[in-house]
Amino acid sequence: MGRMCDFCGEQRSMVYCRSDAACLCLSCDRNVHSANALSRRHSRTLLCEKCNSQPAFVRCVEERISLCQNCDWMEHDGSSLVSTHKRLNVNCYSGCPSAAELSTIWSFILDFPSAGDSTCEQGFGSMSISDNSMKNCQGRPENNNGQDAPVVVEVNDVTDMDKLGVWKGSSSMRQLNIKSHNVGQPAVSATATSPKICCARTKVPRIGEDDCFYEDFDMDEVDLNIENYEEFFGVALNDPEQLFEDGIDSLFGMKDMFGVDSNYQSACVAEGSSNGLVHGLQPACSNPASADSIMSSKTEPKFCLTRQAHSSLSFSGLTGESSAGDYQDCGASSMLLMGEPPWCSPCPESHASTTRSSAVMRYKEKKKARKFEKRVRYASRKARADVRRRVKGRFIKAGDAYDYDPLSQTRSY
DNA sequence: AACTCACATCATGCCACAGTAAGCA
DNA sequence: AGTGCTTACTGTGGCATGATGTGAG
């Protein structure tokens, strides 16, 4: 018996909404996400049928089960016979697709239950699958290497790819590639559009900050503003009290500059926090020398010292007895599996200053554009707030005159 | 260099009300 | 221990407002 719908509590949940962090049955999914234009944009996907708590990542054809990244990893570990199972990407969707459209998105589910009427409430109408509202949740290009991926995401150009979050190189993708699973390789070369720092041979895609897989990660819970990149690039730091935390920030600042997903940063810091990593000056990483590495990187700022500290952090996120699920949304695993971090390749000295300035510039741009989305803890409250009428932004009593109605954008006076 | 001003950005509080937790019988 | 009721608290989004930061003169 699967998990019950978080909204009605009566039907078995089938889809997972990341924005709401909620598991919903198809009926409630339609009801909740037809409430207004914003909720219609929520990206949803199948619910993992094994853990019933995470968004599905792939569909195992042999086992006829949808799995999240963690469960997929455990089920199809390379050492096991089932690692050869054929698996299909599970796509995200938004809007209010009909049962038929959902069947198209997830064509591998033959017994797809009907969700009832296909038309959205409030006359919104269903959103066409072809309108780019549907996207690959893992940011993977579809249907490559002859894999019969359920839906082909049409991308007009590179810009559109970025907008869609298509092939932004999520950790999940890289893990599958590395493990040589049956899930396809990217048809679109990431190197064509992905900026890299003096490591042209690296074929690692840039990790997108807007990767939908992480979109509801709560950045508010951990203050991760990176303010110390200047120091990292050459200004000595004299305050040992601040040294370690700034080192963490700077590390992540480096990561951020080179395009690594900010959620990796937050996830790893969160993980570190749970281990007393951030708040105490405990050794940040699995080996005691790691913190010292960070320290030394501060007093003698060089790129390769950053790498040293980085790899230590990666290990801290992956070693030990922790469940792999703890890192499911953390790019750390892939970062580790990729081996050499892309920015650590030896660079000709003549390019160093150019590289650094461009990295700083890109980092600043990215920092400027960064979004700190908050996590919605109670989807039902959000749903109500989304449709509640207001006067100057304030909620009003039911029946009172209003100046803003999220549903109709009209005024009562 | 110090100051003022204008503008931009950020943080906070407010509102109604359903849901939740705690306390009590 | 379990049940039912009451009460207090929480969280949700858009807007207004004050605080803060920044650059020009």
Explain this structure.
The protein is mainly alpha-helical and 413 residues long. It has a domain at 15-109: 30s Ribosomal Protein S14, Chain N (Irregular). It is built from 14 helices and 8 strands. A 3-stranded antiparallel β-sheet has the order 2-1-3. A hairpin with a 2-residue loop joins strand 7 and strand 8. The radius of gyration is 23 Å and the shape is elongated. The structure holds a DNA duplex (25 and 25 nucleotides).
| Rg from Cα | 23 Å
In the CATH hierarchy, the architecture of the domain at 15-109 is Irregular
The end-to-end span amounts to 51 Å
Query: What is the number of helices?
Result: 14
Strand fraction band? Answer: 5-15%
The structure class reads mainly alpha
Number of strands: 8
Query: Mean pLDDT across all residues, rounded?
Result: 50
Oligomeric state of the chains? single chain
- Largest pleated sheet: 3 strands, antiparallel
In CATH, the topology of the domain at 15-109 is named 30s Ribosomal Protein S14, Chain N
H/E element order:
EEHHEEEHEHHHHHHHHHHHEE
Low-pLDDT runs of 5+ residues are 114-350, 367-373
The percent range for helix content is 25-40%
Keywords: Metal-binding, Nucleus, Repeat, Zinc, Zinc-finger
Family: Belongs to the CONSTANS family.
Organism: Nyssa sinensis
GO biological process, one term: regulation of DNA-templated transcription
Q: Which keywords apply here?
A:
34% helix, DNA-binding, elongated, three-stranded antiparallel beta sheet, 413 residues, 8 strands, 30s Ribosomal Protein S14, Chain N, 5% strand, mainly alpha
Topology diagram in text:
Blueprint: E1 15-17, E2 22-24, H1 26-33, H2 37-40, E3 44-46, E4 58-60, E5 65-67, H3 69-75, E6 87-89, H4 99-105, H5 158-164, H6 171-178, H7 229-232, H8 240-257, H9 262-274, H10 289-299, H11 303-318, H12 332-337, H13 349-369, H14 379-387, E7 390-391, E8 394-395
Antiparallel strand pairs: 1-2, 1-3, 4-5, 4-6, 7-8
The chain binds a DNA duplex (25 and 25 nucleotides) through helix 14, strand 7 and strand 8.
